[in-house]
Amino acid sequence: MRDAWKTTSRRLLPWRAFLLDARSLAIYRVGLGLILVVDCIERMADLEMMLGPSGIFPLDTIMRYHGTVTMWSLAFAHDSTAWSGTVLALEGLAGAALAIGWHTRIATIVGWVAVVSIIRRGSPAVNSGDVWLACQMFWAMFLPLGARWSLDSLRQPTLAPGMEPPTAVSSVATAALVLQLVAVYLGAGLSKCNADWLSGNAMTVALSVHDHGTLLGMMLASDAWWTRPLQWLVIGGEVLLPVLLLIAPTPRVRVGLVAVFTIFHIGTAITMTIGLFPIVGIVAWLPLLPREVWGSAAATDDDTACSHSESPRPGYVPPRERSRRWLL
Fold first, then answer.
1. Rounded distance, CA 195 to CA 92, Å?
2. Interval 186-201: pLDDT, tens
3. What pLDDT does residue 304 have?
4. Collapsing DSSP states into helix, strand and coil, what is residue 21?
């Protein structure tokens, strides 16, 4: 009965949607770390103007902006450019440590605190990409980001010859990360179900230079014959495709979704000036890469049981061979 329950639970689609590979989480860790480093460098260029006491957002103005809401931030501790720069540098250092997997858990916590502190210090200029990054950093604190391909993993005990470290990761944190990803796109798609988007004019406005568009975006926006069907496609994709991740989280579906939304965010990056949002979006999909992408798979209970028997069951395919066939 217990073995039957394990077999059934492995096949439950919602549970499979929350099962992430440790190697995919390692790539995700590197991506988050590099984003923190880039964000630090970009913000340093406008440090005095955006975070300094003589800039456009003095500390007392920010405190009045937040009103009576109790809100913490390291940047609130002292109203000086040097202190804001210190908090910003903390973000960059945490990002570098996260990228190489050095004291990963501590680096993730420090990075989250620094990101939230900087965001709250410059709240009026925050965009959705900043908020999404902070949300991802929060759940990342509870994920084993340093289990593979990190300096932390080099300090782990050496496994016996022929053994591989575990790759399957499933927890409340993985479920929250996946559900958050679905909620972001589902919410964005549903919010576009209004007269402006359904009429086919919203993308023309969004791609204009006066809004967020680049010169390329403005050139493309001038042709309404393709922007109208494209924006309907965007609405449908944001509403339907993330849900597919929950109802059919197969390796092919996962890779397809990662590819589609990567192309989508690349397209937004070259046609719109929206900061780090496209990069944050691309990195958010990296944990969904299935284990088959990496060319090997950790043995399941069935595989382990078979490996101890004298002869394989009829039709048995070894895990490594399955990983090569999954796209065929």
1. 42
2. 999 999 988 888 887 7
3. 32
4. strand
Please, are residues 133 and 112 in contact by the beta-carbon 8 Å criterion?
no
Instruction: Express each pLDDT in 253-282 by its tens digit.
Output: 999 999 999 999 999 999 888 889 999 999
The residues facing 181 across adjacent strands are: none
**For strand 168-169 and strand 20-21, is the pairing parallel, antiparallel, or unpaired?**
antiparallel
DSSP 272: B
Degrees, nearest 5: CA angle 168-172-175: 75
Which contiguous run of DSSP H or E holds residue 20? strand 20-21
DSSP per-residue codes, 179-196: HHHHHHHHHHHHHT-SHH
Residue with the larger pLDDT of the pair 207 and 122? 122
Q: What is the pLDDT of residue 325?
A: 44
For the chain, how many residues are written?
A: 328
Average pLDDT of the chain?
Answer: 84
Mapping DSSP to helix (H, G, I), strand (E, B) and coil, where does residue 297 land?
A: coil
Predicted confidence (pLDDT) at residue 297 exceeds the cutoff of 70:
no
Phi-psi region of 64 (alpha: psi -120 to 50; beta: other; left: phi over 0): alpha
User: 212-237: buried (b, 16+ CB within 10 Å) or exposed (e) per residue?
Assistant: bbeeebbebbeeeeebbeebeebbeb
Q: How far is CA 168 from the centre of its chain?
A: 18
Domain residue limits, the chain: 18-152, 171-302+317-328
Q: Which residues pair with 20 in a beta bridge?
A: 169
For 88-143, the DSSP string reads: HHHHHHHHHHHHHTSSHHHHHHHHHHHHHHHHHHTGGG--HHHHHHHHHHHHHTTS
Task: For residue 169, give the DSSP letter.
Answer: E
**pLDDT for residue 47 is more than 50:** yes
How many angstroms separate the CA atoms of 37 and 94, rounded? 8
Half-sphere exposure of 305 (CA within 13 A, CB side): 7
Would you state the pLDDT for residue 309? 34
Structure tokens belonging to residue 22: 């440790």
Residues sharing a CB contact under 8 Å with residue 164, sequence separation 6 or more, in sequence order? 296, 298
- What pLDDT, in 10s, does the model give residues 123-161? 988 989 999 999 999 999 999 999 999 999 998 776 666
